[in-house]
Structure formats: C-alpha cells, structure tokens
Amino acid sequence: MPTDHQAPGSPKPIQRQRAVEVFGNRFGRLYNDEVVSPDGLPGSYLRWQWAQTGVVVVPVGPDGMALVPTYRYPVGAASLEFPRGGCEPGERPEDAAVRELWEEAGLAASSVRDIGLLHADTGLIENGVHVCCTTVIPAEHGAARPEAMESVAEPVWVSQDEILDWLRQGRITCGVTIAAFALVMADQNALPQGARK
Interior CA angle at 90 toward 178 and 92, to 5°? Predict the structure, then answer.
C-alpha cells in the first residue's frame, strides 16, 4: 500500500551518483549533484550544506516570546524572527543558542533546552536546525542591546495568541520561526511554568 511519506531506512527514490560542488565558502557548500531517478533516468539535484549545525532560539520571558526584526537581503525587507545562527566548531546547540540570543537580541538566558530538530527547506538544505527554548533573564537586569549588524531594532515581546494573530495577518513569514513556534507549542513542557497557557 502506498504511503504519503518515505519511511526511514526504506529505499531512496533518487540516488546520488556524484556530488558536484559548484560553490563553497566558510558558511557552506552548494552542490549540483548528478542523480538517477527510480526509472534510471539521469538528472541533477541542487543541495546546500551548511558548514555547521544550525540553531534557532525561542526566547521566553514574562511578556511572552521575543521576536527580532531582522533585515533579510533575499526578500529585501525586515522580517520578524526568532534569533538564529550556526554553531561554532565543537559548540553544543544549547551553548550556541545562548550566544546567538545575546548577539542577535541582546538578551541573556537563565536556562536553555534543546527541544528538537527541524529542516528549514527539505528540498534544498541538507542540514537540520536545533530548536532551543530559553528562559530570558528579566529586564531589570538590563535592557536588551542587540548588535547593530544582527538586527534592525530591539526585540518585540509577543504573547502566544498575538503570534498566532500575526501569522494569520502575514506579519510573520519566516519558515524557520514558524516551525520553531509550532514545535514549542507541540511540547508545552518546553515552556517555563508561567509561560504556559
């Protein structure tokens, strides 16, 4: 009986014949692999491989969750997103989450938990992205001071219901942010006690 998705360990319908690197820099490698279909027909498949593991941070505090207005060159606009980036060599996702939260949002974490893995674009990007939920140190310990190159404004604190409204209104369109929010909502234990509905 056919299934809607490929089960882990089952035969792969597209087989890589040769990895063909077409571009590379310190951030990753772009491949245009030579592949063969189940019918035996040759073809090619574009694939991006990040140099390091990715991480997206869901910052949680008394006022909800923090989104950072970040300018994204490909879409030519500021995008409301959870902070994200890549792990340094040898860095654990939890440690990268704390660092990225500070660099991109100017916020300090009092706790962090890796709650799962997502794939930002399964049709192009090979690597997964760790989703880490962090409890943010209250504002009385100092206002947020994001780095100028990482964001265009200070973090915006939003409740879960407001995030849902903003998704419906098209104010949040970043796929990684939407997937991370969905994963947190699916695992309410990821949230600190006071932040749960």
Answer: 40
What sign results for the dihedral spanned by CA atoms 6, 11, 14, 16? positive
Distance from C-alpha of 13 to C-alpha of 7, rounded to nearest angstrom: 12
For 28, the 3-state DSSP assignment is strand
pLDDT tens, per residue, the chain with 197 residues = 444 555 566 667 999 999 999 999 999 999 999 999 989 999 999 999 999 999 999 999 988 999 999 999 899 999 999 999 999 999 999 999 999 999 889 899 999 999 999 999 999 999 999 999 999 986 554 555 666 665 688 899 999 999 999 999 999 999 999 999 999 999 877 765 555 45
Residue 57 burial by Cβ neighbours in a 10 Å radius (0-12, 13-18, 19+): buried
Q: Which phi and psi angles does 164 have, rounded to 5°?
A: -60, -45
List domains and CATH numbers for the chain: 15-50 (no CATH), 54-195 (3.90.79.10)
pTM equals 0.85
| Residue 97 · residue 112 · CB < 8 Å | yes
How would DSSP label each residue in 60-118? EETTEEEEEEEEETTTTEEEEE--EEEPPTT--HHHHHHHHIIIII---EEEEEEEEEE
Integer Cα distance of 109 and 123 in angstroms: 33
